[in-house]
Design a protein that fits this description.
Length: 462
């Protein structure tokens, strides 16, 4: 049976006969024998293989092997005399599946820029850095499911296609099967969506929250984990057009419970990744961002800072730093403000609560003074907002009023209002941008390098 290299490096014993499969990272030919390092993606480190001339077809096989070639090697594990590895594989047979012409294969030994690697998105996962990123990404996803499953949350699958354009239709991608060259028109010469696939305009979802609320009203505690889409034309290092979101929703829960869960959640994920991906995390700390391990320890061991928006504005006004955007009660916090709070002032994740009503969504619970809503954002050093959440408005009359105040039509939210009509309860939830989390965890500067196939303006090749 073929063995995974990570497992052999950890637990393989001298004299064991094993078979491995993978891609050649390096080849060194010496007088009388050759070394190759084989990587199968299971770990950062590859397995060193020694090939002696007594291996069948030695010359012919060696000619076909170069960086990037795919191979299967069978042999015996032996203690390694070389530095850096405990064991190595003494080959008894080598099979080359596919060659990788060194003249054209773009991934040679040297380090490539992330920009260059984005242009070869079909090959970049074979590099050390992207390999580490996607292993950590996998560990984060596992930790997320484990965290919620241990606490009895139901994973619910909310739709990708939706008719509700709750959070700003301008940022949504339309979904249509109409012929765009000749769409059917109404008498007023507008597009006649009654003839479209769903009989009305449809979009790719920007969030599964409203549907998650439906499910929370039946299962108490639920979470979604799936792709979301935003047609925002912002070319930043923190925005994607397609990104994954995690959205827990809890019935019988207020904003304090929401914050407690969010904090425990982040601590859990960091602990899990530190335990399961220590080699990759060391790598990030060494080569990408020297504060990665310290940040992880900081998250795991310290209580997050919790301040109100009003207090945050006071602190920003007092800051001995010039900001590009104005600081004023009633204006939204910009990324520079968020980073000042979390990175410079508190030096740890900071939860800002109770934002002005007019800058937040209609579904957030109105406080008694009506000036603020029970919202909370978690700001992370270097990243800014990583989680956005709130206690939801559970009072039918207040919710109806807020919908109208924001210029929305209560009729389109009939089912959302029904949840307040029948068995309403206080409830709360939050949304975590999954790629922002992976960025935060790994120290990767650009969000395009923490998702295998980034979707951004003008970019949909791979
Ligand atoms: P931002 O101000 O950074 O654009 P937002 O206020 O639009 O964020 P929310 O609508 O609260 O974000 O979305 C919930 C979470 O999803 C955010 O906290 C963030 O982690 C993540 N997120 C939002 N937009 C994007 C995006 N375009 N790409 C990746 N992650 C995103
Ligand atoms: Mg946004």
């Amino acid at each position: 049976m073929t063995r995974r290299i990570a497992e052999l490096l950890r637990a393989g014993q001298p004299d064991e006969t094993v078979t491995i499969q993978g891609w050649v990272r390096t080849k060194r030919e010496q007088k009388g024998f050759s070394f190759i390092e084989v990587n199968d993606g299971s770990s950062m480190a590859g397995l060193q293989v020694v090939i002696n001339p007594d291996v069948p077809d030695y010359e012919a096989s060696l000619k076909r092997i170069s960086t990037g070639a795919s191979v299967e090697v069978s042999g015996v594990l032996v203690p390694s005399p070389g530095k850096g590895q405990r064991i190595e594989l003494k080959a008894e047979s080598v099979k080359v599946y596919g060659e990788a012409d060194p003249e054209t294969y773009p991934l040679q030994k040297k380090r490539h820029s992330f920009e260059f690697l984005r242009d070869i998105g079909h090959l970049r996962s074979r590099t050390n850095t992207l390999g580490a990123v996607f292993r950590v990404r996998n560990a984060c996803a596992t930790a997320i499911h484990q965290f919620f499953q241990e606490r009895g949350f139901l994973w619910v699958h909310t739709p990708v296609i939706t008719a509700s354009d709750c959070e700003g239709a301008g940022e949504m991608f339309a979904v249509t099967s109409l012929n765009l060259k000749q769409p059917p028109l109404t008498e007023q010469k507008e597009i006649d969506y009654t003839q479209d696939f769903f009989g009305k305009p449809a979009y790719l979802t920007v969030s599964g929250q409203l549907e998650a609320e439906i499910m929370a009203m039946a299962f108490s505690n639920v979470y979604t984990f799936g792709p979301t889409f935003r047609a925002e034309n912002s070319n930043t290092s923190r925005h994607l057009a397609e990104f994954w979101m995690v959205e827990p929703e809890m019935a019988f829960c207020d904003l304090d419970g929401d914050m407690d869960l969010a904090e425990a959640f982040l601590k859990y994920i960091f602990s899990y990744v530190m335990e399961h991906c220590s080699e990759d995390m060391e790598f990030f700390n060494k080569l990408i961002d020297q504060s990665v391990l310290e940040t992880a320890e900081n998250i795991i061991n310290n209580q997050f800072e919790r301040i109100t928006y009003t207090k945050a504005i006071e602190l920003l006004e007092k800051a001995d730093q010039k900001f590009e955007y104005p600081v004023e009660w009633g204006l939204d916090l910009q990324s520079e403000h968020e980073r000042y709070l979390a990175e410079d002032l508190f030096k740890k994740p900071t939860i800002v609560t109770d934002y002005p009503t007019q800058i937040k969504a209609f579904y957030m619970r109105l406080s008694d003074d009506e000036k603020t809503v029970r919202a909370m954002d978690i700001l992370a050093p270097k990243i800014g907002e990583i989680i956005g959440g709130s206690q939801r408005e559970e009072r039918l009359d207040v919710l109806e009023r807020r919908i109208i105040e924001q210029g929305l039509d209560p009729k389109t939210y009939w089912w959302y209002l029904d949840l307040r009509r029948y068995g309403t309860v206080p409830h709360a939830g939050f949304g975590l941008g999954f790629e922002r989390l992976v960025q935060f965890m790994t120290g990767m500067a650009n969000i395009r390098d923490v998702i295998p196939f980034p979707r951004t303006p003008q970019n949909v090749e791979f």
